[in-house]
Amino acid sequence: MAKITIWPDIYKEQGHWLPCITLAKTLKDMGHTVRFMGIEDCASIVQPYHGDFDTIMKKIYPLGYSFENKLEPVDQRWKPHHLLPLMRGEVDIPFSGANQPDLLIGGYFTSLETLLLRYKYGLKIALITTYLRHPQDDPALFAKTKLIHMPQAVARKLMDGVLAPADQGMSIDKFVAPLQDVKEMIPCPKEFDYSDPDWVHKAQVKYVEPMIVRSSLTSAAITLPDPITIPPGKTLLYATSGSMVQDYESRARVFFRNLISMMQTQNMDAYYLVIGAGARVAAQLRAEYGLVLGGQSTLPANVLIRDWVSQIDVLGNPAAAAFMHGGLATIKESIWEQVPIIIVPHGKDQMDNARRISRAGVGLVCQVGELGPEQLRGLLTTATTSTWIKQNLVKFAGLLHAEDDKAANAKLSVGVINGVLSS
Description:
It is built from 17 helices and 13 strands.
């Protein structure tokens, strides 16, 4: 059996990490040894599931970095601080001697880092892409874009630093070429993605099981932080702007304020709204509603604000509806629990996901600027009473369960991984 290391993302983005915990369980059930690697912030995602975790780049990304991280400059979340240290051996320990894995599974958002490690340590690699990307936005283009937008002297030093002497001076196009043929897994049924003629992936890109169910990676029990108790007799509603909420804080705050106002309208006493706001926005909302420093709370009694929520557990409470930004992980979990979706896209791939929601008929779409308490009430009523939405949720939930419920040796991801290991 093989030793496998998984590195889904640089930052603490639960939507990119949590599916990989499911993948790790599948691989362990097949007899493989699996470890995670990542910055110190990300260890807390894996810890409840008791996965082995190698902490890297502590000096560059100290504990708490993810909380402070913003898009600076605008639209540039990813920063190249770690690339030269990585090239110089910052992550030697997880890849040296007996520690070297037989396979490194990188995330789409760590495709350049995965490529550098491939060259430096002679690794076999695969990728997991935890969102529904356009076929032309392939990992090779993603890595190339990063290289050409950094100072070219730095890009040259970076590439030559991991290449054999005879290959130094290689062009960027040739350097990223291995990513054009890398095996790539998308944890989502193909039926949920676009079927347009211009939306066709290369043969090495495979839609695999949705990776929703998460189990302990050892015999120890899962203990998630801050379990949520819903008051008796209340109907649960859930709202989130995702784990990358700091990228669009102002939109998220407007979204959550309007939802809180909705909970104060007539006949909403029967509902209980749980908001997973992210640490930064949650802190802002608590201050705004007088929940800190002995303030007088103005938050309605039927609203709970949390930094982070185990969505699959809250949605399975069950929730009557999910108000969301439109990240793929939250969409899949809502469909899994057959919870009607009300999607309010904030940016990025969420606009495309809103179209997917409409096409699949599993929820409703609205824009942040159109939202007021009464409009939200109307959307809630429509989403929870629509027979059409309920029927489509049953259909797509069936697709998700059919793949995730398969035995480990029958899962589509295992076929991809075994193909890379045997190549």
